[in-house]
Amino acid sequence: MSTASVTQIYRYPVKSMMGETLREADIGGIGIPGDRGWAVRDEQRGGIRGGKKIPQLMTLTAQSGATAPLITAPDGDSALASAEGINDWLSDKLNHPVTLWPLLPAEQLDHYRRGAPDTEDFEQELRSVFGRLPDEPLPDLSGFEELLEFESPPGTYFDAFPISIMSQQSLNTMNQLEGESQFDVRRFRPNLLVDIPDTDHPFPEQAWVGKTLSIGSVMLKIDTTCPRCAMTTHGFDDLPQDAQIMRKLVANSEGNLGIYASVVQAGSVTAGDSVSVM
């Protein structure tokens, strides 16, 4: 019987920007060091923001540097995250007033609180964030209650859990559906892309929820499936904007793709490592 294995490792130095591929990575309590280590604050409506609210972020690329990430815009211009004038530079590239922030201590709760919603209608706001039509069910957010108040768990900039995992088989399942939608891994931004051969399950990593994975010297607890949002439908790089991404996710996988994990034992992983399910 073939064993599941890690095929790609990804890090995203600035929340919602394109990231980088790693051959190996350390994983600690809050994930891969430097992953979502910086984020932008919306100076118009307040709050830390990602691609859900500022989709232009997804057109930029961030690469780790010795002291701060290097951010590159689609026009080829680049700047260090720590550079003087970075806020004006980034606001110009995004055509939206923002400031760029490294992680702040978890105790600074106001920094992590959500900014003003686009509408006072709570259900309408959720439908906008998750890209759901009026006749489509909203995702089950039990277990995510903290994120109704905060953009991310205080002290972090990841959406909910420190590690996200996706299988190539789940992408293959979605790409085999009728239509021209491109279920490209770049839309979903996992930390670990895994291969799970010899399975008939259309979304095989979902069967790991509630279990523990051993990968390299790391142990991960699989907490839940990953409810997908409107960010996955935005166009960037060579991927077109495509609302059908969400229509197909809702119709075929209850709007979920991939899984979230928390870290039980810190260590390191390398591309090619086998995945043991415990």
CATH architecture: Beta Barrel
Shape: globular
- Adjacency order of strands in the biggest sheet: 2-1-11-10-14-13-12-16
Rg (C-alpha, Å)? 18 Å
Can you summarize the main beta sheet?
8 strands, mixed
The CATH homologous superfamily name equals PK beta-barrel domain-like
Tell me what you see in this structure.
- This protein has 278 residues and is α+β, with helices and mostly antiparallel strands.
- It has one domain: M1 Pyruvate Kinase, Domain 3 (Beta Barrel), CATH 2.40.33.20.
- It is 16% helix and 27% strand.
- The protein contains six helices and 16 strands.
- It has helices spanning 86-94, 109-112, 122-130, 168-175, 185-188, 244-253, and strands at 5-11, 20-22, 24-27, 38-42, 48-49, 61-63, 70-72, 78-80, 98-102, 163-167, 192-195, 212-215, 218-227, 256-265, 267-270, 275-277.
- The strands form four sheets. An eight-stranded mixed β-sheet has the order 2-1-11-10-14-13-12-16. A three-stranded antiparallel β-sheet has the order 5-4-9, with helices on one face.
- The model has no long low-confidence stretch (mean pLDDT 95).
